[in-house]
Amino acid sequence: MKAGPFSPATCPRLVIKIGSSLLVDAGGEIRREWLAGVVADVAAAHAAGQRIAIVSSGAIALGARRLGLAKGGRASLEDAQAAAATGQIALSHAWAALLGGEGLTAAQMLVTLDDLEDRRRYLNASATLDRLLSLGVVPVINENDSVATAEIRFGDNDRLAARIAQAAGAQGVILFSDVDGLYTANPGTDPTAELVPVVGRIDATVRAMADAGSASGMGSGGMASKLEAARIAQGSGATLAIVSGKVDRPLSAFLAGGRGTLFTAERGASARKAWLAGRLTIRGRIHVDAGAAQALERGRSLLPAGATGVDGRFARGDVVDILGPDEQRLARGLVEYDVDDAARIVGRRSDALAAILGYAPRAVLVHRDHLVML
Known about the structure:
The structure is a single chain. By secondary structure, the chain is an alpha/beta fold. It folds into two domains: 4-275, Acetylglutamate kinase-like (Carbamate kinase); 282-373, Archaeosine Trna-guanine Transglycosylase, Chain: A, domain 4, CATH 2.30.130.10. Helix content is 37%, strand content 19%. It contains 14 helices and 13 strands. A hairpin with a 5-residue loop joins β11 (319-323) and β12 (329-335). The longest helix is centred in the N-terminal third of the chain and has 25 residues, at 77-101. The two termini are 27 Å apart.
């Protein structure tokens, strides 16, 4: 595979994600020699002018061993939080020491889902990442699992890496994992499965190839989460690669022509619309007919007349998904009505809305300025 999009000349900023199964061995210890090879590759890229941010898993796995917790620290939310708080110190120390040995300065950023879903907090995180990278610092990012709950967490670092790339203005993302890419079927159970080297648009056929399981049992992200990460990256104009990390010096090995699946970047949306497309917290859904779906594809707003139903509990200004007649997700946007009023005007013409609602209505359900196609 040609890895041109990830060369320093064409990719000024790159995000690398490293999974738990690569960084931590079965005994719960850091694979320090392997990690030193990763850091050596990062230092070489940095010397060539590239700036790299690292999304590093491993805190829960490391902490679980130190605390003697069952099931790798994932038996309960409380165990995971305690393991994360304990393991994060060891993880950060390892990164800082190894990067420092190469003459690089490390910085730690711990984020929760809300930090990137809330627009103001997202912009703050983006500004911090931009400043660190411009100073030549290597940010090491992880989810703040010590305070995250099931309702406010990414749950995997694949999607976190894509959102960090978006916030950092990166042009490329590499997910180093215990698998070497997307296959046509599960290679563990189907001997005819073939690696897919390049993917453009992620459609239903591509999604059907995803296996939600994690090969190692140590991490939390399967192929489904990697496809979602690829969708987020593509929507913000970044190319994403899924690459095996089960080799020494995996970055240089990939750049030299190693195996993997490349999800090519789409034409980037505006910064605000890219942030909107990448959101993971959705308050509801609006179902539309074929005519409305075609109008959205042409860049139009969503009118009440084109809607066929709503579900969820959303208020005006919340993020909703828009689904076509086949129930496939078409778009995402900021809704102009609370759910109760939206349900009352579904399928109705604009000139009838005032009589139905009893007040001067807004003309659209979702305005095109606050809508992005998926």
